[in-house]
């Protein structure tokens, strides 16, 4: 394949990531959370493929690195904020919040701000070549999208759930920029000894995904990283 074509493949995949993220954003504004989740997953696939293709084709470029961050900031920064914004617009508020409830949904855009900080930090942090420091933005986005798609009716009932939702916005935003070590799935080999934490994650994740949902898998990922943080 001519070099002039191959060098554009990674950036094309990055643009498809961005395009899918934009569609997910529209779906979230229209309260179509299942579709938003679908297009986020598509974005995540393109995000994985663009980096892999750049390495396989030996086609890295300065513009590709910048474009990747910009695409990720939309797909995995703005989109989860819009999802939570839309959820908070649907939520039932207690009487004491009635005078300012129209402003509460904007609190969701903390996620976009901290996601941008996370991506900027990742670009200059040389420690994150084989693992993560802080929650990665695709995992954060999948958590919010899956929660909205699978637990929508429960999340908008208000009361204690509303307070929990607001606390989670702060908690996950801080996790994005924290110094909390988290494992990645960049395998050097398939040996049990070197990858037992990853295999344990996968073994437990399968029944969680089937019986509870994708958001629970992301929660399990965070909890497992907490317990094994000294080994990462």
TL;DR of this structure?
The protein has 232 residues and is an all-alpha fold. Helices cover 70% and strands 3% of the residues. It has a two-stranded antiparallel sheet with strand order 1-2.
What does this structure look like?
This protein has 10 helices and 2 strands. Helix content is 70%, strand content 3%. It has a two-stranded antiparallel sheet with strand order 1-2. The chain has helices at residues 3-6, 9-29, 33-56, 62-90, 110-124, 137-150, 152-155, 160-176, 192-211, 214-227; strands spanning 131-133, 181-183. The chain is globular, with a radius of gyration of 18 Å. Helix 3 (33-56) runs antiparallel to helix 6 and helix 4 packs parallel to helix 6 (137-150). It is an all-alpha fold and 232 residues long. It has a single domain (3-179), classed as CDP-alcohol phosphotransferase transmembrane (TM) domain (Four Helix Bundle (Hemerythrin (Met), subunit A)), CATH 1.20.120.1760.
Count of separate structural domains: 1
The residue-averaged pLDDT reads 92
Helix content: 55-70%
Determine the number of helices (DSSP H or I, runs of at least 4 residues).
10
**DSSP E strands, number:** 2
Poorly predicted spans = none
CATH superfamily: CDP-alcohol phosphotransferase transmembrane (TM) domain
* Element string (H = helix, E = strand): HHHHHEHHHEHH
Terminal-residue CA separation = 40 Å
Name of the top-level CATH class = Mainly Alpha
What general form does the structure show? globular
Strand order of the largest sheet: 1-2
Question: Which sheet architecture does the biggest sheet show?
Answer: 2 strands, antiparallel
Radius of gyration: 18 Å
Protein structure class:
mainly alpha
CATH architecture: Up-down Bundle
CATH topology label: Four Helix Bundle (Hemerythrin (Met), subunit A)
**Binned strand content:** under 5%
